[in-house]
Amino acid sequence: MAPPSLQIKKSSSNKTKTILFILQLAFVAVIFILWFGSEPIRVSKNLWILFLCAFPSNFISGIIPYDPMIIYFAKYHPMFWVVLVGVASTLLVEGINYSVLRTITNLKVMVKIREKHFVKKLIDLFYVSPFVALIMAGFLPIPYYPFRILVILSGYPFFNYLLTVFISKIMRMSCLVWVGHQMNIPDQIIFLFFIGIIVITYTSVFIQSLLKRLCRLKKLEK
Question: What predicted TM-score, i.e. pTM, was given to this entire model?
Answer without folding.
Answer: 0.73
